[in-house]
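Quick check before the chapter quiz. The format below is the same one you will see on the exam, so make sure you can read both the input and the output lines.
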Amino acid sequence: MNVLFEFATGVLRGVVKVALLALTVVFALGVLCIALTLALVAVIRFLLTGRKPAVFATFTRFNQAAQQFRPGNWPGGAARNAHDNGDVVDVQAHEVRTAVRPLAPPESTER
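Here is the expected output.
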C-alpha cells in the first residue's frame, strides 16, 4: 500500500511540475509577443510621423551628455578631438540690436 501511495504522489508531483512549466512558458511567450507588438507599433508610428520615439530621443541626449566623460575628452588629455587643431579663430564683434523699442523712463510723481 505504501508503494502505491508513493507512486501516486510521484506521478501527481510530476504532473504539477509539467503544468507549472507549461504555464511559465505560455506567460513568457505572451510577454514576448506583447513586447514585439509594442515595438512594431513604435516602428510603424516612427515611419508614418517621421519622429523618433521619446525613448530613443532621451537615450540620445544621455549619450551626448555622457560624451564629455569618455576617455580622451578631458581638457589637457592626451587624445584631442579631430576638429581641434589648436588654431585660435578671431571674429569681428558687432552689436546685436533688438526689434523691441526700449521702455520710456518712469514719470516722476513729484510736483
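If your answer matched, good. The mean pLDDT is 81.
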